[in-house]
Amino acid sequence: xxxxxxxxxxxxxxxxxxxxxxxxxxxxxxxxxxxxxxxxxxxxxxxxxxxxxxxxxxxxxxxxxxxxxxxxxxxxxxxxxxxxxxxxxxxxxxxxxxxxxxxxxxxxxxxxxxxxxxxxxxxxxxxxxxxxxxxxxxxxxxxxxxxxxxxxxxxxxxxxxxxxxxxxxxxxxxxxxxxxxxxxxxxxxxxxxxxxxxxxxxxxxx
Length: 206
Description:
Blueprint: H1 13-33, H2 38-49, E1 55-59, H3 65-71, E2 76-81, H4 84-93, E3 100-104, E4 116-122, H5 130-143, E5 144-155, H6 166-176, E6 179-186, E7 190-196
Helix pairs in contact: 1-4, 2-3
């Protein structure tokens, strides 16, 4: 977690895709087994924002951890990722779930229209360039129904300079149009950030 977003491939689209295709076979062992608290934090993320029968979008779904947890409660979950290897792993792990589908696509160019109750993302924004992070969050705002919820899982800013401070998160999400920004720190490592799209809002009014 300390070095997330700082590798030589993290902010180069083609290299990043190739990297995650290769690491997909080891990803769960490296992060879900070796990093204490990751799975528990993902569950807390879902608990914080997902309600029964919600329509959920998981940005950068990877091998499916957050998407599959959300599927136990949500009505329908869409997982999007730019890595075939990661999605293949997610499909294998979630083959028993009939309310999850997967889309091979870069989150910087999402093929969706407004209609999600919840948008989730875990350790994905950090691999993007600053301007791309802002664009993805603005797109997330667009894709949420009025009153919809955003839930992000990452690391606390004490871990490295790649992670936002609480005030930086508040500013970034407010800039994108979100309100009620909440930050919860877990296990000295993880940080959950939640926010809402206002009930009375439209893209034209911003």
